[in-house]
Amino acid sequence: MVDKTPIDGKLAWSFDMERPMSSYLIAFAIGKYKKQVLRSESGIPIENYYYPQEELKVEPTYRYTKRIFDFLEKEIEFDYPWQNYKQVPVHDFLYAGMENTGATLFSDSYLIDSVAFKDRNYVNVNAHELAHQWFGNLVTEESGNHHWLQEGFATYYAYLAERSIFGEDKFYWKYYDTAATLKNQSEDGNGNHYLILMQIV
Ligand SMILES: [Zn+2]
């Protein structure tokens, strides 16, 4: 955001973007939030939003965020393409997460405490939506026929990021499990490459 200017008793908010993006990637999240501010190794501000009364969930929910960010920049070998990055939990969200440019929205059912972290956490969605900032947002498919460009790379890079945190066993298990699920769907005559999309948009 560049500034807020009063015009006719209202406030005009001005935003600056250095690169173009597709219109489906714009979003607003409006509510009462506080934020944790981190900074990547490369100097990009990372803002993690949370409900004011749930400060104890900040660390477990956003655990490994900076590590994932630094990992993806290094692994993809292309600097994060936008000026900043934000993650905002929202209520009654249809998907796990959505990779709006510079601002991922995600279901607040992923807001967890440190006990719940082992059972269910935001790490995979965190990495998946962040990978979309390159694959999908910086480079966007021209039509739905090429959605592999979005979901294929986002899914794969999220697995790589998880491998760097949780190790080889989990990586190969998820790899195998995904392949087996896709194979079963295919054999049932329901095969399509949107399986991952159905789980995480
Ligand atoms: Zn996705």
UniProtKB/TrEMBL annotation:
EC numbers listed for it are 3.4.11.2
* Keyword list, A-Z: Aminopeptidase, Hydrolase, Metal-binding, Metalloprotease, Protease, Zinc
Metal-binding as UniProt keyword: yes
Q: Which family does it belong to?
A: Belongs to the peptidase M1 family.
Which SUPFAM superfamilies does the record cross-reference, listed alphabetically? Metalloproteases ('zincins'), catalytic domain
Every Peptidase M1 membrane alanine aminopeptidase domain range: 64-192
Coiled-coil regions, chain positions: none
Cofactor(s) for this UniProt protein? Zn(2+)
InterPro entries from the UniProt entry? Peptidase_M1, Peptidase_M1_aminopeptidases, Peptidase_M1_dom, Peptidase_M4/M1_CTD_sf
A GO MF label? aminopeptidase activity
The protein here is known as: Aminopeptidase N
Q: What catalytic activity does the UniProt entry give for this protein?
A: Release of an N-terminal amino acid, Xaa-|-Yaa- from a peptide, amide or arylamide. Xaa is preferably Ala, but may be most amino acids including Pro (slow action). When a terminal hydrophobic residue is followed by a prolyl residue, the two may be released as an intact Xaa-Pro dipeptide
